[in-house]
Amino acid sequence: MSRLQHTASALALASCAIFALGSSSSDKTDKKEAPGAAASGAATPAAATPSAPLKMVPLTIKLANGPIKELVLDAPEGARVEVKGGGTFVTLGTTFSIGIARSSAADIKTERQLAASGHSAKPVVDTDTPELLVFHSDLLGTPRYEFLSSATVDKVVFTCSSASLDDQVYAKDDVPAMTKACKSLRKK
Amino acid sequence: METSRLRRTGRVTASIVLRVVVPLTMGAGVYLLRSQPTVADGWANAVGMHDAVTRLRSLALVGAEERAPRWLLGTLPDALWAFVVAQSILLIWSHGSRAARLFWSSLGLCLVLGWELGQALHVVRGTFDVRDLLASAAAYALALIATPSSTLRIKESV
Predict the structure, then answer these.
(1) Which chain A residues contact residue B63 at CB under 8 A?
(2) Burial of residue B88, with CB atoms counted within 10 A of its CB: 0-12 exposed, 13-18 middle, 19 or more buried
């Protein structure tokens, strides 16, 4: 009886762990996999639908220097903060990655001019407001969307832009979640 | 004799349903309100249940995720899961060594707390939230406290 109970207990805990694993969020929301998601089993109906809203939760970012030590923004659940190469990145899978940095009004103006001029071909500007610049360019036939936004938190100016550590290409549908996250930047 | 065995089996089944299946189903149901995909969605796809999951999700009220409070979507499933872990161990050890029950209950608690803390250390998928940790610990404690060993015993005779 006791041996059976021990086995049952081990199985129960293992089952609970598998259940917990199953309920954890999937990072495999790769837009490249989305069309064949049902076949591969990697994504879900929500992931396959480009406009499916992400669940946004408050995420704290610690800043090494400057008057503000901590910032909060609404990021998709499961997003991670990475500090690399002097930049702070908030990423989730391959469809969400933003870079946040302390800046100034003059720097932002320069960055906007550089972004709007493009690297090789002049990009098409989709949105151009004082706080947000969304533009896209053609990358071997695929539109590559980027944005640059600014936020002032407690009189400190930050830039928040589409920036990933691995030069990810974003689709148009990826942009709203990222700009929404940038817009939610606030002091903790 | 046969009747008492049947009644005992019925009580065991009822206990498993009430203490394990119901809270587990409730927790899983919450995930249908959430638009964010889970690992289980991938499993469902792999076994050809993609359409069934899609239909279940479509039954959820449109915009329910936006209206639902944070604790319902994020914390409640964790608490229910922790409750189920504790109840599973208590059910299995309703008869038998107290030391063994204590050992497995401790192991269950380690699993519950470890799962949450593992998220903080990025060794487990998910976003760490101290509220989830506290709710899970509270639910685990509640399951242990609110289910004294005397009530666990499913009597042989009726």
Answers:
(1) none
(2) buried
